[in-house]
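To fix ideas, we reproduce below a protein record of this kind.
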Amino acid sequence: MPTRRTRADGGGPAHPDRSDESPSPLPPAISAALDEGVGDLDAQLFAIRDRSPGRSRYKLLGEVGTGGMGRVLRVWDESLQRELAMKVLFEEDDEDPAERRRRLRRFLGEARVTGQLDHPGIVPVHDLAMDEEGRLYFTMPLVRGKTLAEVFRLARKEREGWTLRRAVDLLQRVCMTVAFAHSRGVIHRDLKPDNVMVGPFGEALVMDWGLSLVGERTASGRVVGTPAYMAPEQFTDPTSASPRSDIYSLGAILYELLVGCVPHERTMEESPDASGLAEFLRRPPRSIHTLGEEAPEELAAICSKAMAAKPKDRYASARDLADDITAWLEHRVVKAARTGTWARIRKWRERNRGLSHALEALVLVALIATTVISLLQRNRIRTVQAKNREIEAGTYTANLHSASLHLRNLEVNDARIRLGECPPALRDFEWGFLDYLSDSSERILTPIESSILVVAASGDGRFLVAGSAEGALHIFDGLGNELASAGPLRGPVHSLQFLPGTPLFLTATRGGAVTLWNAETARRVRSLSVGSGSIMALAVSPNADLIAIGLASGEVRLLHSSDDSVAFVLRSSDGPVSALGFSVRGAFLAVGYSSGYVTTWNLDERRRVHRVLLGDAPVHCIAYTPNGRELLCAVGPRVLALSAADLEPGMQFQGHAGAVSSIDVDPPHRMLTSSLDGTIRLWDLATGTESARLSGHLDEVNTAVFLADGHHLL
């Protein structure tokens, strides 16, 4: 099982394409340093040997340690009288020549790349040479101190002055060093705590650049790095290593600081069945908080973003990662964690504790002052409120009285205005009673943006139809839900009649058009051929076999409903027809004229039976009573009951302030009238008395009909 100290340097799959996250083009200084004599490795070695002073300049003092490619020695520089570190390349007698040349190139690359990375966080290279035995070496300052891994252990235990914040500050400087290397086109590829030295004065130095990848150079396809800190793509496709691979490693270092172990370590401990390095790296590390660690939430968010499985989901650069860590150190908003106004306020409060405490105290004083002022003003407010209640009570009484007077004069709109001005808190029974009188409707159908002239209801109560002055038809179900609309027709719809026992209905317009419609489909069935002339009235016989059409010429044309053919024509010189009504059994037809005359016709004999003049005003509407004994005629604001046998006048129904616009009857003895005064009234035909007056309309009422259940009106 690989550990965090093990570095993988074996073969891996090749990939023809580089990742989108490849390093930026190689800077000229580094390119020149690496390309000198690159075509011939032997030539490079000979040139180095010729320029080498030999080991005589350096005196061996001891060994510091052993790395992946060589030993690190402690030496004394006789020329400058200083102690240095010398890294010497391993030499093995039985080593494969190709492998030896690969290691030579890598050793040369490490020395030259490190020598060109001039940054306080990178140990400089003083000399690259070859000793008398032909072994390559380079010298650099001897770094004393602790590894970052040792500092992390001390910080977690808060020993020797190390804390989490100091350790995170070190990591921020490491991120800036890596960002510098990336800006020079160099990818480290083996970042881990053991490759970072912390000096006695807090210096953070990134070491061991032997596995670095420079500029646009393609990786060899060999897996290099330390698995515990490697980004997934470094193992699955070594050629795709990019600056974001180093960012993953930096996130893994932060993970170790927060949790106390390398990524995947606890996952592997809990999942011993995991086999192979590939499976080991494919599994994401356990969440920091699921491991029971009390790490700052924002640092955990930074760690998660840096260690995202997909490179595109990580920080765009090591500088961005360093900026987020700096934001945490300075108590500012961390972009990887929560953002927004409240997060900024919380961070500002953490940065400015003294000022925030002063502001909080100021707010508290303001609240106390506001409370005191509120208490002082309360009595004054109560006095004013008492006076206001007295004024409101007087206004309420005056509005009620005014609304009552308006209702008596049938001025419904004015009455509603007065009722609306009554304060809601004072409205009681008397207000509710007047409100009921001003609008006794049960519901209002879907608002229609047109003037309704006529309505009709099917005999079974399934359909309601309304015709408008604009020639539009609106079809509703029996509950008042609009099903469809049709039109516009040629002119205002002034007559609507359902054919008894069917969903079919007729419409008539002043322009002379009569149309048969189907309420179920909301489609036109056919247009009736009625000849020329302005149509003034329309009626359908009780058995639906005849259709009566009254014309402005005084003629009444009776058509067969089956084929629209003319059955016969009734002619009169009494003026334009204004109303039509079939008797209960359909044997007689009553005709009202605009001249005030009413005539009855025997349809079987096709002759006029009676004729009477009711006055100078037009006869607006005609209807037979349910028992067929009386003929109800609306003339002006009154309804006259005439004997159906001889048209002798009988009972009169008076009470409307405007002309009666429609009559409908309901067995056994109820009559419904609408009027241009905006009211609807129910009458008892037996006694001639008004049994109910219904308000609610703000304008003239053109038509009112009983619905099939006998309890509702439209």
